[in-house]
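Now for today's protein.

===
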Amino acid sequence: MSFFRKYGFKGIGIISKKTNKFHSTRVLIPIFEPSKIPYMPLIFASNNHHKIDEVKAILAPTGIEINGLIEIGFSKDIEETGSTFHENAAIKAKAIFEETGLDCFADDSGLEVEALKGAPGVYSARYAGQHGNHKANNLKLLEALQSQTNRKACFKTVIALIVKGELHYFEGRVDGHITESILGQKGFGYDPVFIPNGYNKTFAEMPQETKNSISHRKRALEAMLSYLVPAQNHTIM
């Protein structure tokens, strides 16, 4: 189904191209002050509940409303066929914008390990073969680094934002190193094997609030906010 925006005094709804009927929708009604936060609410082009929860937690202090794909009833898989984080983020954002016509953003994130020439990179989620098998991915990474003394790595996030039909990119990065074993139960992905510089715990051992305060995704979101509302300071506490 294709969707088009409809604006009214009480919020936003959608018109079905097939039935030509207007349907109100609770999740798309803005509850912010429009003069301070334009383009909202924003659709986050992800069905990954870990990412959605993390982004909502990071943006909570700003008052910005985020809706994931599940919340707007979009359940299709978007194939990530790009060879870079920028390409994959753009593929997802464009797919949702073309389907809904709504302002949206997508991210592509991954781990780059210096000794592995940037791997796993864009293949981070499926490094061991099966997409999203975090334990297998971590074990394969530790095995690949077994004889390496250089364990430097970084997490990267690239956000592709589409507002008013225009595409913009924002980046975030956090540097650190890979541990020699899996440590911690929190987080997801490579969090149990990554220690950020300046800390002695993995992301998976930290309270979520601490991780969110220094993460690559937070830094990319801050850059996006600086574009959306340039007159304000966007260091998210």
